[in-house]
Design brief:
By secondary structure, this protein is α/β, with parallel strands linked by helices. The chain is 29% helix and 30% strand. It is built from 6 helices and 8 strands, in the order βαβαααββαβαβββ. The protein has helices at residues 25-36, 45-51, 56-59, 65-76, 101-110, 121-129, and strands at residues 4-11, 38-44, 78-82, 94-96, 115-118, 135-141, 158-168, 174-185. It starts with a strand and ends with a strand.
């Protein structure tokens, strides 16, 4: 059965913003490897549109190899976009979802294949509230942003996690690999 992996960047104060963080060659390489080892990634409209930046590097490469590698990795992976407003993705490897995220995840998990990545905060919250996340890869950047969207601000119930491993980078960025214990506790 395929595993559902929520992979997201976050500051020390819990802010999720694709414009904030310490991004270097090692982090680009890490995310390229993650994409290369997965079967598809699910995005909400806003995150998908931010990720379309990487299409520009396909025709106008960067001087940094790891950025170009990431652009190639994100280009290759199949993408499903959840949007009520987009009519076309403008990306050959992306399609607009025709069912709610929970239904798509349940269908995909029954199929054989590589893991399913979840790359948008809103989808992570929705799928976590439905007990459909198998692993979290929370990339914590050693900075305090002070404002913005917090990753876990709309969770319905308390959920416990088990730390499976960590990965550290010279930049001070750390990735925590968590598995939800699937035991929900009563509201606080």
């Amino acid at each position: 059965m395929r595993k559902t992996i929520a992979a997201i960047n976050m500051t020390l104060d819990g802010i999720c913003d694709h414009h904030v963080g310490i991004v270097d060659q090692a982090l680009h390489q890490h995310y390229s490897e993650l994409l290369n080892n997965a079967g598809l990634i699910l995005y909400g409209r806003k995150t998908f549109q931010l990720m379309q930046f990487w299409q520009t590097l396909l025709t106008n490469p960067s001087d940094e190899k790891t950025m170009n590698d990431f652009a190639n990795s994100i280009n290759k992976i199949e993408k499903i976009v959840f949007s009520n407003t987009l009519k076309n993705t403008g990306w050959d490897t992306a399609k607009i979802a025709d069912k709610p995220p929970e239904n798509i995840i349940l269908d995909l998990k029954k199929q054989s294949g590589q893991d399913i990545l979840i790359g948008s905060r809103s989808l992570i919250i929705q799928l976590l509230n439905s007990n459909l996340i198998d692993e979290f890869q929370i990339c914590i950047h050693p900075m305090v942003e002070g404002k913005g969207l917090r990753l876990f601000d709309q969770i319905k119930d308390r959920i416990s996690f088990k730390l499976n491993r960590t990965k550290s980078f010279d930049s001070g960025v750390i990735i925590l690999y968590y598995e939800p214990t699937k035991v929900k506790l009563a509201n606080r």
